[in-house]
Amino acid sequence: MAAILASPVVAWSQAEKTQVEQKEHGRPALVSTADLAEYEQLSEERQKLIRIAIEVAKNSPWLPYKYGGSTPEDGGFDCSGAMFFVMGKFGLEPPRTSAAQFLWLQKHERLHTVPESATELSDPSLKELKPGDLLFWSGTYEPTDGRAVNITHVAMYLGTEKTDGRAIMINATDGRSYRGKQANGYGVYDFRLPRKTSRSKFVGYGTPPGISASKAEAEKTQDPEAGSAPSSEDQK
Question: What PANTHER family would the database entry show (predicted)?
Fold first, then answer.
């Protein structure tokens, strides 16, 4: 089970506050890959992506939520900045914003949409969800930048914990919780779908382009001759 790390309260300047006054929360939880039930069964590239996502949090000072932040040197991340940084360290070239990352998956036919009626992770629309996939929400705030789609939050699914099967994700946020404790910044949080009455909606998920969508696809990429028919030369 992940440990909640104690840390001093962040002192937010007025410029760093949104129009709605933010509560100050503690440092997010962390996990190791050994805590994740599905990790050993994943393809090497998915393992690497998840390992990078976790190491960014473990190897950095507390990275609070900071609008516009996309590197640890910025002193914090916003949600899409965190995913941009993690995927960049893997070697991918994602767009910068959550809306653009959503459209990136859609363009490459990697996006799985989830209906608003889905309120449990057992919903059939989530059957293709895999650790390392990006998760997208709308309605977490009111965007004013003229984005093409109303996507306002992005995270990465880590899978479930060995201890009790709890679904978790890693992202930069302020106020989401892990095991009932709210936190601020880049770290591990519970992954659950919004209630029907919630203003925010879970929109969909998918594998980042550049990562094989399945383990079989990854193995085929690593060994393009695997599964191919023998040539005439081989049969002599």
Answer: MUREIN DD-ENDOPEPTIDASE MEPH-RELATED (PTHR47053:SF1)
CATH number of the domain located at residue range(s) 25-210 in this protein: 3.90.1720.10
According to DSSP, the residues that pair with 161 across neighbouring strands are 36
Q: Which contacts of 144-149 are long-range, i.e. CB under 8 A and separated by 24 or more positions? A: 147/97, 147/99, 147/100, 148/99, 148/103, 149/99, 149/102, 149/103
Residue 213 contacts residue 192 (beta carbons within 8 Å): no
Residues 36, 119, 54, CA angle at the centre, nearest 5°?
25
Indicate the SS3 state at residue 48. Answer: helix
Please give the Cα distance from 187 to 171 (Å, whole number).
6
Domain segments of the chain as ranges:
25-210
Separation between Cα atoms, residue 179 and residue 29, nearest integer Å: 9
Q: Of the ranges 97-101, 194-198, 215-219, which one carries the lowest mean pLDDT score?
A: 215-219
Q: What is the pLDDT of residue 17?
A: 41
**Using CA atoms, how far apart are residues 48 and 40, in angstroms rounded to an integer?**
11
pLDDT band at 7 (very low <50, low <70, confident <90, very high): very low
> What is the DSSP pairing of strand 111-113 with strand 76-77?
unpaired
Classified as helix, coil or strand, 11 is coil
φ, ψ at 144 (rounded to 5°): -125, 15
Q: Model pTM?
A: 0.83
